[in-house]
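Budget justification, computational time. The allocation requested in the original proposal was used primarily to generate structure tokens for proteins on the priority list. As evidence of use, we reproduce two of the resulting records. The first is shown immediately below.
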Amino acid sequence: MRLFYWQSKQHINGLYKSGTFGSKPYFEATKMQVNHMDILVVEDNVHCIQAIGGIIARLGYNVENADTCKEALEKVRQERFDLILLDIFLPDGKGHQLIPELKELWPEVGIVTMTGHNSRELEMEVRKQGIIYYMIKPFQTEDLKSLLEHLSQKHSERIESETQFQFRK
């Protein structure tokens, strides 16, 4: 289920008609779309999904959600994501135990884990699995925004590098 993507797409479609995106000029709003990523949020708390999904959509990224380990695996088998925000404690298992399977399906996927129940042992166990970042909930909107902007920049640089390499062949 796509959360917020439809609403964002409607706003973007309205942008082309009116020349503005809310109070932002056209060129600033379209800039958000240049560095887009497809992001899967794996979280069982509806309020967290809405909050995180809303932030992601407002920043111009495509966002989908899954609320169980099983649903996350199904989505990753069907679709490629650039980034997965993965809650560690889910109703049908521990999210961090999914990381090897997710990496097997899409080795280049970036994974950021999230938890509201942190311990030093858990953090060490999760970090060994090659995640990008370990977030402790609740986190500030600005922290998520900064992280996504940084990862989006890295993603864009990688895509640009791959594109230049293909043209050289």
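The second record produced under the same allocation is shown here.
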Amino acid sequence: SQLAQPASNRHNVSDTTAFLILWHPSREAWYILAYRPAGPREESIVSSHLSRRAVFQGVCALLVGGLQAGAAHGQAKFVQTPYKHPKALIDVYLDDPAKLAAALNWVRGVMNPLTEAPYSLSPEDIPVVVLMHGTEIVTLARKNEARYHDVVQRMRYYADMGVKFKVCGLSMKDYGYTPADLYDFVEVVPSALTELMYWQNQGYALIPATVMDKKYSIEQIR
């Protein structure tokens, strides 16, 4: 379309229409704006500020920018990370034993994806150590089985898959327990800190099992 007319054709300005192509990122839509000057004054403003070359370059810039913006708003893509030789040290140090159920989701987050397709690793090929040295130690005391039955069953399930559950010996003594007071799938180690150093030196990735107080449901914030 014609955006500016030569001086000799200014009397035909009412027949001139300008078009502007715009991309609206938030609405993900193209807009075409049409402008028809009402008289010589409007036409002269367009003629003095926009040459045909400038208009052409501007439209090209808008088109390129719009295409880039459209690409930036494309959907995410799923990638399969090539996991090899995974080794995890999950550090559990909770201020409330009731949070252990949530903390065990960190174990699930390691085991489930790696044992399922496309990785399909055998559990014995996924060395996982769970180190416990907080209030959650009380869940491992056999005398508390009735209170923590469900979470104990989950730990037994993972222990049968080869996950090692280790308890800090210093913390165990603080609670007045002995190894005889704990379940048979538990291993007592001298200290949580020395254990953290040891397993990381063996190449295990440290995963802190952080459990925060939940303020909102997923439906409230999604």
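A brief technical remark on that second record: The beta strands are 18-24, 29-35, 88-92, 128-132, 164-168, 186-189, 205-208.
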